[in-house]
Amino acid sequence: MPPTKLPFTYIVKGRYWRFRRGETKGALPGAPGDAAFHSRYSELLELSERKEPQPDRDTFAWLVARYRKSAEFEALRPLTQLDYGKTLDLIDREMGDQPFALTTSPMVKAVRDDHRDTPRKAHKIKQTLSRLYSWAGEEGLVEPGFNPASHVKRLKGRAKAITPWSEHEIAAFLSAAPLWLQTPVLLALYTGQRREDVVRMTWADYQGAFIRVRQSKTGEPLDLACHKVLRSHLSAIKTSFGGPICRTAKGRPFTANSLSQAVRRQIAVLPGFPQDRSVHGLRYAAAGRLDEAGCTLTEAVAVLGHRTYQMAHRYMAQRRASEAANARQEVRG
Question: Which domains does the chain have, with CATH numbers?
Fold first, then answer.
């Protein structure tokens, strides 16, 4: 009588045999006793016993893998883990077989300079390496204070200018945009939140007078007063289905990138509309509105944070000064 129970096998729907051992799994043809069954079973068993080659203990590949399993990495917010993970992958690819205890500052600088065309990525490599060495020092994996990335300077690159939308541009966009695209634009404009947080807002977060937000970058929970214009718009489109407030024309939830793309596509078809306007520029426009409304620094920072408010304030002050100068010239004729 053929065996009816083999290690790592199980039956689905009373007749289909399957194999699963760790990450190795697959279908088994026929039933125990059949030649094809045992041939495939042997293949899967052998495959499951193979071990992936482990990186040498003194290499960056080993260090990166160990850091990913650390309590420090696991304590990071999911979006931060994802962001760090991309740079860790890059370090693994470019420095994986290199001994981390023998790395020098010039070697870190050379890797940074390979990405000089993207200064932000270059700095993140340096920044992540520095964090990796700090953690390695705490773990006793390198000598105390050994951090060849700590003295490598940041590459100076041209910061991408973010221009706040003018009231005329906001009105022109909203008058031409479809209803489904008006929603995230109004949310960004009247809450002043980042695009990542706008697309995560749900109908459960909307409380009528307030809309609740937990900022993805800071983890800070906020209860933001809902402006009457935004409140009127949301009340008019609210449904009983729940879920994300912002959805595409096909009813799918937006991602941060898909929202930016949708706004860019709409801008591209508007005659004479500045093509450099962005979703982040709406956050700056919100900062400008808070400033013009006479909000205190404490009130504005509670919504936006110091950096965004200060940068937007500087731009809006320049715009107002330009308008005042032009008005003086027109008076003089």
Answer: 9-49 (no CATH), 60-138 (1.10.150), 167-332 (1.10.443.10)
